[in-house]
Amino acid sequence: METGDEPLQSVSVETTNIGASVSLLDTATGYYLYLVNVNFTVGSGSVTLGLTDNLLILYNKVLTSYFCNVMSYPLSPKLPTKAFSIVPDDIYNYHTGIFGFQGLNQRPIFVSIYPANQFICSHRFLTYQDYSISCKVSFSTDPTIPDSFPINFRYPSGFFLNYNPQPFILKESVNVTASFSLILPSLASSIHQNYYFMSDVTVNGSSQNILDLTALDYTSTRIPYTVRKVLGNPYSNYRTLYIFQRGFSTGTSSFYLFKVLNGTINNVVTVSDTVFAAPIPPGSIQLPISYTKSNDVVELEFTGYTLYQSYYNCSMGFLDPSWINLAITSGNFYQSTRKLSFFALYQSSGTSISQPVLINIQGLQSDIEAPVIQSFTIDDLGGMLMVITVEATDDISGVYKISMGSLSMYSWDVMNGTIVNGKWSKVFDYSKLTDYYRVPTLSIWDVAGNMKELEIANYGVIFTDTPVYPNVIPRQFGLGQTFNNLSISTLKFEKNDIDLSQLSDSNSVYINFTNVNRWMTIRLIIDPISEPYLFETKDHYYDVFYGTWDETRNMFKIDFTLPLRMFTGPVNFIVYYPDVVFYSQDLLFYGINETLRVVSDNADQMPPIITKLMKFQDTDSNVIGWDMLISDTVNGFKEGFISVISSIDSTGYNFTITPKVNQNIFEDTYSIRIQLPNYYQSQVFSLNLVRLVDQHGVTSQVEYGQSNPYTDKTRGISPLYRVVNSVNQTITVSAKELLDTQTPSLLQVSFSRETVDVGRGDRSLSVYFNISAPIANVSRLHIPTCSLMAINFREQSTKAVLVDYQYSSASYECNFELDYGFGYPHTKIILSLYGYSDTYGNLGGVSTHDIIMADLPYYVSVEFTRTVPIILSVPDISDQGGQLSIFGNYFYNVSFENVYVNNNTIHSQPIQLGENNLIICRINPIANDFDLQVRQVEGNSNVYRVKVIKTIPPADCPGTPKCGGLSNGQCTPQGCVCVQPWNGLDCQSRTIYTNTPVINTTTPSSGNQFNTTLPNGETVELRTLISILSLDEMSMSGQLVQSHDFPHWIFTNITGNGEIPTYLYRSNVTSRGIITTVSVTVQYFPLLTNITFANIQLQMQPSTVKYRVDITPFGFEKSVNYLRLVMSATLFSSSTSNSTCSAMESGDQNEDNEYVKLQIDTHSLYGRFIKRAIIDNRIQSISNTIMKSNKTSNTESQSIIGINIPFYRVKSSIDPDFSVLIDTSPANTKPNSKCSSLSSSEDQSNVHDNKLTSSQIAGIIIGAIGFTSVLVISTIYYFYKKRQAASALRKINMKINKLQK
Q1: Where is the DUF7034 domain positioned along the sequence (predicted)?
Q2: Residue 1072 carries which DSSP code?
Q3: In the prediction, which pLDDT does 1169 show?
C-alpha cells in the first residue's frame, strides 16, 4: 500500500474457543499497522487472519494452532540430578544443584524463586521439568544457618511450591583469622576515586567449608561492586579486595566482615570511618552557547568554561551521538575558549551537545518527516553470513542510516536508485555478535536526523517469515536448552588438570551438539565473574575464545589459554552456541562429567601497585617529577605507562617505565622527571593516567581518578589505591612569568588535492599547515591534531608530523586515508586544527569558521562514484587455495574474466551474492600474499592485498601404489592415514596383537617375548628391548657438557580399577644444586586408542606400549645449552643362517616427523620421532639425533636416539609408544644392508647407500610425542631352524641382560 491509500476494508481474526480483537495502530509510516489481541484459554484451537480490500480477499491463512493445558498440581520433586555440594563450584562460593518436578510437560512463562533469607540464588531452566539453581550465602538480619534450605517457586497463577534441598553449609567450626585495612579517599583526592576494603585471611585446618568473608558498607547501604580474590590459596591464606564506588555525599560508614562459626554467620571485625564525597566536576555545559553560521557551516563557541574533559557526545536530531573533541582555541585546559564547527544542512529536531543540552540551529532547509521503509528482507548466504536488503524513501534530505540491532547500513551503501528513493543491500558476518538475545528493532534515519523505529516480531521479520539471524537458535528465555533438539552431546578437554604455579598454559576443548550446524562459530567464556548469566552484557569483560568446526575431529574445537597463577580450584566456563548457553555447572544434566581444574601454589591476580609516592621539585633547574615505589610481590613488575597533565594543559607528558637490569622486579623505586621551560605559568601537575602491568599481564589502571571494571580487564583495581590520600599526587609550581598572552597563530594551510572520490579505492588526503609563535616560540612538546568533519558529526582526526622547525614557526603535515563514503551524501568535508601551543603554555587552535575568516582553504570537495567496483575486505586464504570471499560494492555480472590475481584472471566461474556486494570464487594454490582486483567495463576496483596463510605442504606419500592403495590408506598432507588393520609408513604392514609386556620393576626398560607361526608353518619366538640411557647437557655447538645416568629408579604401579595397565618410574639427577626429577609413565594399550599431544592426533595401535617422560627444572650451565634424552632401540635375531642381513635407515617422514628403521631379514624396528615438543607448556619445534651403534651386526641392529630438548625453565614432557607390526620385505633388498660374511654374492648384491627404497613397514612403532619420539618397532619374525632355536635364544638373553645392567 502507498501512503495516502485508504486502509483495508476488512481485517478479521477468526478463532476457535477463544476471543480476539483487531485495532489499527499506525498509518503514518507508509503502511498500516494493526494490533491483533488473542486471549488464549484452556483447550485447543486455531487462529486465522483474513485481509479483504474492495471485496477482494488478499490474505486468509491460519497463523497458529494452540493447545493450552492446566498445570498439574501439586507438583512432586524429582531426585536431584546434581545435589548441592559442600565444596563450592567456583572460587566465588557459588553452589549449583540441578533439580526438577514430576508432571510438568510444559512450563509457565514466568517462575520466580525465593530462597531462605540467608541465601541469594539465581536459576535457569534446562527443560520444562528441570531447573539449575546457583546459590551462595548472603547478608541477613538472621545469621543462623537453617537446618533446611527452603526454596519457594512462585507461578503466575499465584501459588507457591516449597522445595527443601539439602543445605550446602555444614555446621562445623572453622578457625579463621583475618586482618583488614580500609582505605578511604579524602576530599582532596581525584574525582570519582573508588575506595577499598582489603582483608587478609588465614584458614587454620584443612576444612573446605570456608565461607568467603564479605564486606558491606551498612551506613550507605552500599555493597561492593567488585569483590576480587587477588592473592594466595582459598584453602589457606588469601587476600580479598572489596571495591566500592565513591558516592556524592560525605558521612560515616561502617564495614563488617563475616565468617561461619558453629553454624552461625558471625561478625569478625567492624571498622567505621568517614567517606568523603567525590567532588562534582565543575563546568558542565550550560546554555546559552553562542554560535556563528557561515552558509552550511555552524560554529559553537564555549567561553569561560572550566571543563575537566575535552570530549562530549554530539548528535544531530535522533541520530546516535558521536564522541567529539571540543577543541581549545585559546586559553588553557582549565579556563579556555573552545569551539566546534559542523554542518547544519537541515532544520529538524535540533543539535544535541552532551545530552540533554539541546541547541536549535536554523538549517538551510526544513525537514521534519522521517523516512519510510517500503520492504525489508534477510537472505541466508550460508555459514554465518546474511544479506539485509531494504527499500526505503524519504521526502527531502534522504536516507542516512538503517539499523537492525547492531548491524547498520548508510547512505554510501545504497545499491540502486538514490538516497531519496533507493535500495540498500549489505552482507553481514554475524558470527561474533553479542546481542542475539535482544529482539532487534529496525530503525531508519534521514540526513536531517529524523527517525522511525519498527518492532521486529519475536525472531521473525514484519515483512517476511525469515528469522532475524538465519542460523541462530532463538533462546526464548527460560524455555529450556533443548531448542530445535539442540543439546550438548560431547565435551572433552585436552587437559583437565593444569598447574599454573609457574607458567600460563594453553589448552583445547572439543565439543559437539545434537542437531549441529557445523558452519556455526561457537564460544568459550572462561571464569565468568559473579553472576554468569549476565555474561551477554559484559562480553568484552571476560576471556572469550572462539571455535569452529574441526574436520579431523568431526566436532568443534576451541583453543584457549589460562593465565599464570589463577586461584586453585575448579574453573567455571560457559559454552555458547548462538543463541543457546550451556553452563559448566549444568553439564552433568547432559550426561557429561567433565571438569577443568587448576592449581597454583600461590595465586596472583593482584596487579602492580604504587605503595609509596614521593614528589620531586627543583626550582633552580626547573625540574619536577615523582619517585614511586612499585610493588608486585609474586609475578613481578614488567612495564608501566604514566601520563602527567597540568591544570592548564591536557597535552600530557608521557612516560614508559620498565625495570632496569639492577632493579628488583618485585619491589623497587622508579622515577619520572619533567624539564620545564625557562618561563611558565602557575599550574598544578597531576598523575592523569597510570597503567602498570606485571610479568604475566595482570594490569592495574586509573585515568582521571577513575578505574572502571566494566571497561577494562583491570576489574576496578587502581594502581594508586594505596596512596589515594597522599598529598604527593600533585605538584604545584609558581609562575616564572613572561609577558606573553598571545595565542599561536595559523599562517597558512593547504590540501594535497581539491576533490576526493570517497567511493573509490584511493582516498588519501594530506593537509599542510604552518604555525607561528613569535614571542615564546612554538612548543615541540605539543603535537597538533588535524580534524576533518563530515555531516552528522562524522569525524576523522590524526596527529600531525613535524616537517620543519624554526623556533618561532613550525610546519606540519597530516596524512589521512579517508573512510569509505566519508562525507557522503554532502559534497564537502571541513577542517579544524587544535592542540598546538607556545612554550609558555598558551594553547592554540582554529575552528573551520576561524579558517574561513582568515581567508584560507577550509574544505575538500567529495564525490562518490557508485558504478566502479570497490573491494572493502577479503579474509585470509590458505596457500592450498580454495574458496575466496570478496566483500565490496558494485560488482556487476562478474565472471572469471573480471577477477584478477596478480594481474592474471582466475580459472573458475565466481558466484555472485548479496546484491552486487559479495563475490565467492575459487583460487588455485598460491605460495605468497597476492594482489586482488575486480575489473569491469565500468572501471577497475582498487588493488587489495590478500594475506596467504602457510599450511603444511602435501606429503609425497610412500608406497606403490601410494599408501598401499585406497583399500589400505589415504595420502594426506601429513602422510599416509591407514585404514585398519593396515599400519606403517606406507600402510603395508599389519598390527600384531601381543600379550601385556614384561614390566621391569627396577628400570623403565620394556621388552616383549612371544611366539608366532609363520605362513610356512615355522614357529618363531620374538624378543625386543627399548631403554632410556641418560640425560645429557649439550652446548650450543653440540659438545657434551655433562652426562647423567639413572642408577636408581623408584617403581609404582598406578593402574586404576578397570583402567589400562600404568606404571610410574622416578629418578633424580642433580646439576648445579638443582635436583631434577625424571618421571617415566609406562602404559599398555590393548585396543586401538586415539591420543593428542602437541596438537597432533595419533593412533595408539593395539598392543602399544606408551612412555610418558616428564622432566622438572634442570640446572643448565648456560641458557643457550640444551638437553639430550638418550634412548636405545635394539633388535635381535637368533638366526644362524648365512643369508641373514640387517639394515638401518633414517630420514624425514614428513614435515612433522623423522623416522629410523632397523631391520633383520624380514623383520624391522621402525621409529617415528615427532619434531615438536611441549616446553614450559608451549609447543616448540625440536630436532632429533639418530646414531647407528657399533654393536650392529647381521643378527643385531641397534640405534641410539637423542631427543634434543631446548632450554626450559619449568617443565618438559615426552610420550613415546611401541607397537608390533608384520613386514615381509627382506633386509637384503634395503639400502646399506649388512649381511653375514658367508653370504653369497647374490645376497650382497643389494647393499646400497643409506636411503629408503621400499616403505613397507614391519616392526614396533616407537612414538615420541612433543619432544617425544614415536618409535615403531616392527614385529621381528625370526626365520630359524628348530634345532638352532635354543642356542640362539640363549645368546639373545645374554645380550639383553648385558644391556639392562
Answers
A1: 744-865
A2: T
A3: 74
Question: Which burial class, exposed, middle or buried, applies to 136 when counting CB atoms under 10 A from its CB (0-12, 13-18, 19+)?
Answer: buried
Sign for the CA dihedral angle at 567, 569, 575, 576 comes to negative
State how far the Cα of 418 lies from the Cα of 410, in Å rounded to an integer. 12
Q: CB atoms < 10 A from the CB of 1165, how many? A: 31
Rounded-to-integer distance, Cα 1259 and Cα 1276, Å: 6
Report the amino acid identity of residue 69.
N
Task: Give yes or no for residue 565 having a pLDDT over 70.
Answer: yes
Q: What is the mean pLDDT of residues 602-614?
A: 90
Q: Under 8 Å CB-to-CB from 442, ≥6 apart: which residues?
A: 373, 376, 402, 403, 404, 453, 454, 456, 462
The CA distance from 637 to 657, in Å, is: 10
Nearest Cα to Cα of residue 1263 among 1073, 1114, 1129, 1118 = 1129
Helix (H) or strand (E) holding 1281: none
Residue recorded with cell 599398555: 1084
List, for residues 997-1036, the tens digit of each pLDDT value: 777 888 887 766 666 554 455 555 666 677 888 999 999 8
Helix and strand element counts for the chain (H, E): 3, 105
Whole-model pTM: value is 0.71
Rounded to a whole number of angstroms, the distance between the first and last alpha carbons of the chain is 97
| C-alpha cell at position 860 | 575538500
Type and span of the H or E element at 1147: strand 1141-1148
H-helix or E-strand containing 943?
A: none
Taking the C-alpha atoms of residue 261 and residue 268, their distance in angstroms, rounded to an integer, is 10
- In this structure, are residues 88 and 95 in contact, taking their beta carbons and an 8 Å threshold? yes
The amino acid that residue 400 corresponds to is Y
Between the CA atoms of 136, 137, 141 and 143, what dihedral angle is there, to the nearest 10 degrees? 150
What per-residue confidence (pLDDT) applies to 1015?
A: 46
Neighbours of 551 (CB within 10 A): 9
Q: Are 381 and 914 in contact (CB under 8 A)?
A: yes
Residue-by-residue DSSP string for 246-306? --SS-EEEEEEEEEEETTEEEEEEEEEEEEPPPPPPS----S--EEEEETTEEEEEEEEE-
pLDDT digits (tens, 9 = 90+) for 352-380: 665 445 566 667 788 888 999 988 888 88
Q: Cα–Cα distance between 1049 and 1002 in angstroms, integer? A: 6
Burial 306-336 (b: 16+ CB within 10 A, else e): ebeebebebbbbbbeebebbbbbbbbbbbeb
**How far apart are alpha carbons 168 and 87 in whole angstroms?**
8
Mean per-residue pLDDT, 132-149: 65
pLDDT confidence band for 213 (50 / 70 / 90): very low
Residue 403: is its pLDDT beyond 70? Answer: yes
Instruction: Report pLDDT for 243.
Output: 74
Residue 115, strand partner residues: 151
C-alpha cell at 1204: 634434543
Helix, strand, coil share (%) of the chain residues, nearest 5: 5, 50, 45
Q: Do the beta carbons of residue 132 and residue 111 sit within 8 Å?
A: no
- Alpha carbon separation from 1035 to 159, 1040, 1119 (Å, rounded): 79, 6, 10
For CA atoms 993, 994, 999, 1003, the dihedral sign is negative
Cell numbers that stand for 494 in this block: 585436552
Strands (DSSP E) contained in 938-1087 are 939-940, 944-946, 948-949, 969-972, 975-978, 982-983, 989-991, 998-999, 1006-1013, 1019-1034, 1040-1045, 1050-1053, 1062-1071, 1074-1085
- Please tell me the distance from the alpha carbon of residue 1000 to that of residue 1105, in angstroms, as a whole number: 13
Cell of 1231: 639400502
Q: Is the bond leading into 288 cis (omega within 30 degrees of zero)?
A: yes
